[in-house]
Amino acid sequence: MGDPRKRKKKYETPTHPWQKDRIDDEKELRRKYGLKNKKEIWKAQSLLRVIRGQARTLLGVSTEQSAKETADLMERLRKLSILKEGAELDNVLGLTIQDVLDRRLQSIVVRKGLAVNANQARQMIVHGHIIVNSRRVTAPSYLVAAADEESVSYSPQSPFVGRPLQVGKQAQDSKKRFTKEEPEAEEQGAEKAPEDESDGE
């Protein structure tokens, strides 16, 4: 038993510190979801690892207790909208870290158009501008249940109420990150931009 005054670490660090593919993937996740540091990625990975491990264990046994635990696990994932209705236990093994990160309050705020990008969404949440079910939530990593998603809005005391957000390049870039678009199309558009400018000149 550890010291009760010290919090237990809720995540596992990578087994190897220098892996280029993993580092590149983590860098892209930080950019897309506006994460503060890699610890938030590792926490999501640890949560996903626990869920997958529980699913693998339940798939290997068939008792009355395992059936109850399976139902509880599936119901929990459906409430968080990590799994869709009608999904089976096998589908849990196919979950990715993006499925977890998409349910963060920070991601929901951007998706609902309450912030122009993930960084602004994080700032709004930390400063107490966002409420969930009429309750102020200041944790960007808070996992929003599907039933609570519609209630995500500005706090009544927030200066953002009734104030139009500035829509510009940042908002367009953020929208691309949170929608599934082909990267090739974006690259082609970026390459064509200089050509258009040269023609104009």
Provide an overview of this structure:
The radius of gyration is 20 Å and the shape is globular. A hairpin with a 2-residue loop joins strand 1 and strand 2. The protein contains nine helices and three strands. The longest helix has 22 residues. It has a three-stranded antiparallel sheet, with no helix packed on it. The chain is mainly alpha-helical and about 200 residues long. About 50% of the residues lie in helices and about 5% in strands.
Give the CA-CA distance, first to last residue: 72 Å
Radius of gyration equals 20 Å
The sequence of SSEs as H and E is HHHHHHHEEEHH
Q: What's the tally of helices?
A: 9
Largest sheet, spatial ordering of strands: 2-1-3
Which percent range describes the beta-strand content?
A: under 5%
Helicity level, as a percent range?
A: 40-55%
Report the major sheet.
3 strands, antiparallel
- What's the number of domains? 2
| Low-confidence segments | 180-201
| Average pLDDT metric | 83
Describe the global form. globular
Q: Give me the count of strands.
A: 3
Q: Return the structural class.
A: mainly alpha
Descriptive tags:
about 200 residues, Structural Genomics Hypothetical 15.5 Kd Protein In mrcA-pckA Intergenic Region, Chain A, 2 domains, three-stranded antiparallel β-sheet, 9 helices, 3 strands, about 50% helix, about 5% strand, globular
Write the layout of secondary structure elements.
Layout: H1 20-33, H2 38-59, H3 64-79, H4 89-92, H5 97-101, H6 105-111, H7 118-126, E1 130-132, E2 135-136, E3 153-154, H8 169-177, H9 183-200
Antiparallel strand pairs: 1-2, 1-3
Helix pairs in contact: 2-3, 6-7
